[in-house]
Amino acid sequence: MTNGSGMMWNGEDSLATDMARLESVWAAIRVGLRRDLGARLFDQWLKPAELGDYCPESQTLDIALPSDFAANFVSAQFGDRLRLAWRSANVEVREVRMVRARQAVGPRLLPVAVDAAAPATGSASEPAATHCNFDPRHRFADFVVGDTNRLAFSAAQGVAGRDKPRYCPLFIHGGTGQGKTHLLHAIAAEFSAHSPQDPVLYMSAERFMMEFVNAMRANDTMAFKARLRAARLLLIDDIQFIAGKGSTQEEFLHTVNELIDSGARIVVTADRAPQMLDAIDQRILSRLAGGLVADIQPAALPLRLAILEAKRAVAGDPPVPQPVIDFLASAIRSNVRELEGAFNKLIAYGQLTGRAIDLDFAQSMLADAVRANARRITVDEIQKVCAAHYRIDAAEMRSKRRARAVARPRQVAMYLAKQLTPRSLPEIGRIFGGRDHSTVIHAVRTIEALRQSHPEIDADIRALRRQLEG
């Protein structure tokens, strides 16, 4: 079996040759990183890094670091630089992941999946599938559970367990950085642990679309379909990105139908509930909503505190005092990813500078993040608040009805979306039922004029802004 460049991946001689090539490239990359970053920064974070596993099917290479914290920090600070270096090295590495080092040191070449459409030519013991395209750092044990994510967590465990799940598919929705992708990786890891021979396929919706388009261009859609339909667990992240892509949606629908009929497990995530996804085929939405829909709400204060406590327990020096933990939990409210990133930033700067972490230091270092969180308002929140204020159903914000009792509140919500969020006019129009950007412009101009001539409209806008910003 060969990879894209024709190198053999099976056999001990080949493995040694290919891993030696990766080690050689890694040595050259390390020299360049030390030169570009400086000796102190390199020695602090990248000197301990070693080559980890390599998966030829997904062309994913692991860089192993001593701890989860080091892996997360290097990924955040140097991940793009490392990916560019490997992609520029003329080797078959498409993706680079930073992971915690295994106890047994040394890189491995992971087995390649057998193409379900190809005839069997190898030994009967050849692996049926690879499970190397999910991140082993994201496990159920590392997911901090609270009231806002408990249903999604329990449902994810149910899908990953040995017994047949009660609901299929599982649809998890929530805002950016709330833990949806973490749960997908945890499901994959748990399922693979008890069913190592069952094919698992994890990909983003964008990757699904890209691979399908490439398969059509190469006149090789049969192999693409066979690979998807061979999965016993299919995980698709951010399904909203196939909105408006007719042929991709058709293929996705057929894949979902066949997998469900065959008893396979399917988990899909999105940033919104199925009924709020615009430009997605209704047949897909019906299928996805036919299993279990579980949402992840923004983490409440008790959960944010629990997440920070879990990170403090494994972070090591310098110590983070309780007042700083309380400050972070109160100030960083937008999503869990930003909360963890703020904590990592404090630890990293404390280690690099040798300064103790106290409240003044935290407030100074995170001033920009705190300001951004204070102003973070979503279009969905605006729609709900405006609908409640004008006593209409929130779904009317996206409906086609033009009655004044509905149209005016919708215009107010569009106006506030333009004023209070970074969304572009086309994005706002899409969220309001797929409307054109010119409709949003008209709404903004209309409300601006009404504020000048109708004091009650101006009073409404001021009251709604206070509610949203508070």
UniProtKB/TrEMBL annotation:
Q: Any idea where this protein resides? A: Cytoplasm
| Domain Chromosomal replication initiator DnaA C-terminal residues, every copy | 378-447
Positions of the UniProt region annotated as Domain IV, binds dsDNA: 351-470
Q: Which CDD domains does the protein's record reference?
A: AAA (cd00009), Bac_DnaA_C (cd06571)
Record carries keyword rRNA-binding = no
* Gene Ontology biological process terms, A to Z: DNA replication initiation; regulation of DNA replication
Q: Which residues form the AAA+ ATPase domain?
A: 166-290
Sequence positions that bind ATP: G177, G179, K180, T181
Listed Gene3D superfamilies? 1.10.1750.10, 1.10.8.60, 3.30.300.180, P-loop containing nucleotide triphosphate hydrolases
Keywords attached to this Swiss-Prot or TrEMBL record, sorted alphabetically, are:
ATP-binding, Cytoplasm, DNA replication, DNA-binding, Lipid-binding, Nucleotide-binding
Q: Which GO terms describe its cellular component?
A: cytoplasm; plasma membrane
Q: Which InterPro entries is this protein grouped with?
A: AAA+_ATPase, Chromosome_initiator_DnaA, Chromosome_initiator_DnaA-like, Chromosome_initiator_DnaA_CS, DnaA_C, DnaA_dom, DnaA_N_dom, DnaA_N_sf
Q: Which superkingdom does the taxonomy of this entry point to?
A: Bacteria
The UniProt GO MF terms for this protein read:
ATP binding; DNA replication origin binding; lipid binding
Indicate yes or no for the key word Nucleotide-binding. Answer: yes
Q: Where is this region: Domain I, interacts with DnaA modulators?
A: 1-117
- What exactly does this protein do? Plays an essential role in the initiation and regulation of chromosomal replication. ATP-DnaA binds to the origin of replication (oriC) to initiate formation of the DNA replication initiation complex once per cell cycle. Binds the DnaA box (a 9 base pair repeat at the origin) and separates the double-stranded (ds)DNA. Forms a right-handed helical filament on oriC DNA; dsDNA binds to the exterior of the filament while single-stranded (ss)DNA is stabiized in the filament's interior.
The record's NCBIfam families line, in alphabetical order, gives: DnaA
Family, per entry: Belongs to the DnaA family.
Q: What do we know about how this protein assembles, alone or with others?
A: Oligomerizes as a right-handed, spiral filament on DNA at oriC.
What does the record say about domains?
A: Domain I is involved in oligomerization and binding regulators, domain II is flexibile and of varying length in different bacteria, domain III forms the AAA+ region, while domain IV binds dsDNA.
Name this polypeptide is given: Chromosomal replication initiator protein DnaA
Native source species? Sphingobium fontiphilum
Q: What's the encoding gene here?
A: dnaA
